[in-house]
Amino acid sequence: MRNCFLSKDKIDAQFVTMADKLFSLINEDTIIVPSFVDVHVHLREPGFFYKETIRTGTLAAAKSGYSHIFSMPNLNPVPDTLENLNKQLEIIERDALINVLPYGSITKGERGQELSDMDELGDFVIGYSDDGVGLNDTNLMKKAMLTAKMQNKLIVAHCEDLELRGAGYIHAGEYARLYNHQGISSESEYIPIERDLKLAEETGCKYHVCHISTKESVELISQAKKKGIDVTCETAPHYLILNDMDLKDDGRFKMNPPIRSEEDRQALIAGLKDGTIDMIATDHAPHSKEEKSRGLKASAMGITGLETAFPMIYTKLVKTGILTMEEVVKLMSINPRKRFGIKSAEELGDFCVWNIGDAYKINSAEFVSMGKATPFDDEIVYGKCLINIVGGKEVYRDNETALV
Q1: What confidence tens digit (pLDDT) does each residue in 323-357 have?
Q2: Which residue among the candidates 117, 196, 278, 283 is catalytic per the annotation?
Q3: Is the pTM of this model over 0.90?
Q4: How many CA atoms lie within 13 A of 339 on its CB side?
Q5: 283 an active-site residue?
Q6: Under CATH, which number does the domain 36-344 receive?
Q7: Which of 109, 130, 142, 249 registers the highest number of CB atoms within 10 A of its CB?
Q8: Would you tell me how many other CB atoms lie within 10 Å of the CB of residue 207?
Q9: Is there a contact between 337 and 370 (Cβ–Cβ < 8 Å)?
């Protein structure tokens, strides 16, 4: 048995027969780890079911070893009132295959002009976010933080200054200069983070930064943590594995924030290693084939992330010695649970079995997600989920896996 991060005695306290069967699968090519938690997923329903549904998105998550995913609020209707949120909750109750915890929006319609009905949403959401767009009104962000603090909820911020972003659509770096693309500056991300950190310090709000991508963001958050500000942050696999010189004029390389420079990528990895970056989230953001077929300039922003997350992290960062499996488990399971108040995998009975011995090629045509756009198509990877157990119940099993 190698690299087994849930010991048999912890599992079989509740699931004796299941544990015996699972551990019979363990050999040098398989591991058991706590099921993952993704704090940043776009499920697209209600409102945009042609991109993804709660059913297909949670199936993709179940297949990928996740027990909990947090759904972003850029929906139609936006969950800015309890009435609107209930439309999403009804679909979750009916169709979700794993735990889905929704965010409420910070502002009405995510328009950045008026706070959502946070008082009535508080008991039903995991936190508040206007993800998809930055909230550039300082006074409104401060009011949101004060309200969230009273509820002991997190503000989960998409940090982007829209004026600084301008008409850009990829990183303002070497690739953009070489091929005459309009760039998105690093300042458009880190200047809003700098502002919000000051507000978080002033209000005492629990603050979490979405999908950081720049070296300056890492440094600002590092310094804020040293000052005792209650801040955490996430990054995504594509920012850790790719740099802007890996881009192609293809919509599957377009997301927001964009893939940055090699210097930024190295800073992100260093931030994972020293604890500045607390978790890896996917920012799973599926779109239709047509929306992603217009090249870098005109394609919709966002890529599919759930089904490639662990295989790419394991292949590119663990097998190469950059991260240990223990660190990955903290980043993808333990830390998100702690930050957002979810019980441990051992308490809930959330664990998954992975084959890490056999290589295979990523083929987006085989994704169960409706979104097929990924920069990792055709990559040779290791890490295939064999079984995923959530709350003591099997939610996914690979067709070729048999329990003996």
Answers
A1: 999 999 999 999 999 999 999 999 999 999 999 99
A2: 283
A3: yes
A4: 28
A5: yes
A6: 3.20.20.140
A7: 130
A8: 26
A9: no
